[in-house]
Amino acid sequence: MHEQVRDYQVTQEPYYRAVGDEVDLYEAAYAVRMPMMLKGPTGCGKTRFVEYMAWKLGKPLITVACNEDMTASDLVGRYLLDANGTRWQDGPLTLAARHGAICYLDEVVEARQDTVVVIHPLTDNRRVLPLEKKGELVEAHEDFQLVISYNPGYQSLMKDLKQSTKQRFGALDFAYPEADVEKEIVSHETGVSADVAGKLVGVAERARNLKGHGLDEGISTRMLVHAGSLIARDVAPLAACRMALVRPLTDDPDMRDALDAAVTTFF
Ligand SMILES: Nc1ncnc2c1ncn2[C@@H]1O[C@H](COP(=O)(O)OP(=O)(O)OP(=O)(O)O)[C@@H](O)[C@H]1O
Ligand SMILES: [Mg+2]
Fold first, then answer.
1. Which of 68, 202, 238, 244 could serve as 226's disulfide partner, Cβ 3.0–4.6 Å?
2. In angstroms, rounded to a whole number, what is the distance separating the alpha carbons of residues 22 and 25?
3. CA-CA distances (angstroms) from residue 87 to 74, 99, 135?
């Protein structure tokens, strides 16, 4: 492996509990170098899944958190000034394409469309990346793959991806795992007993039913892991759930009361 991407190697197996056939499907997608899009609500395991797949496939993983101020140069690279004049520095996308890493663009809808289009020539059969400022055409390494993720539903229409972008990808839908699986995840991640993990999942199920009825989003697996970690450190369950589950989710006093009540029915 090229030294420039060696630091991005995932050396330890990340804990990932498969919820369906996503591991096999992703492996098949990687085998044909299909660019992949992971869709699902916040905190449901998308990032963990990519880390796991990068480890399983033995490929370095370069992650970029996208935002609306991001420019094409932030992805592709730029000339930097140093004592000896100017020097080209590859951006994360170029680094991944050149040396054969998996490039993961997190929350890609946040990026402006003129930024997102730089991935187009890399995600069709050309598999090239033109570095216009440098006058170089990078041919993607055979191990290179692009993965993007986003939370459908949060963004306005303005922020949706263009069809010409979407249609370059295969997609996997992620959702909060079903109760038994989520219980296992929370218990494994935090060390709380199966009993406590089950109660946390119960609270989450109640809250998820309130989505669209006063809550924009339900309690994520991530939040349950937070709550479980506090309980594992001997924080009282009620206080842990308030801090990690209820307070971050909503400012609405009635909704907080309803969620607090749900917590007390379990703990
Ligand atoms: N299937 C799973 N196996 C193992 N851990 C999981 C799984 N799903 C969720 N988790 C736990 O939930 C946490 C949040 O997951 P992750 O960071 O992957 O969410 P995400 O979908 O990338 O969210 P966001 O869209 O906000 O980035 C993880 O750190 C992990 O503890
Ligand atoms: Mg993520």
1. 244
2. 5
3. 15, 19, 14
Whole-Å CA distances, 262 to 186, 200, 213: 19, 10, 15
Ligand 2 centre to CA of 150 (Å) is 8
Instruction: Tell me if 219 CB under 6 Å of ligand 1.
Output: no
CB 229 less than 6 A from any atom of ligand 1 = no
Tokens of 88: 């080209």
Contact 183, 201 (CB under 8 A): yes
Mean pLDDT value across the chain: 95
**For ligand 1, is residue 47 a contact (CB within 6 Å)?**
yes
For the chain, the C-alpha Rg in angstroms (whole number) is 21
With a 6 A CB cut-off, is 42 part of the ligand 1 pocket? Answer: yes
pLDDT digits (tens, 9 = 90+) for 208-221: 999 989 898 999 99
Is residue 34 classed as helix, strand or coil in its secondary structure? coil
Fill in the amino acid letter for 1: M
- 82's CB contacts (< 8 A; 6+ apart) are none
44 lines ligand 1 (CB under 6 A): yes
Q: Which atom of ligand 1 is nearest to the CA of 45?
A: 18
Ligand 1, atom nearest to 49 Cα: 18
Contacts of 84-92 with CB under 8 Å at 24 or more apart are 88/131, 88/134, 90/4, 92/62, 92/63, 92/64
How many whole angstroms separate alpha carbon 264 and alpha carbon 131?
58
- pTM check: above 0.90: yes
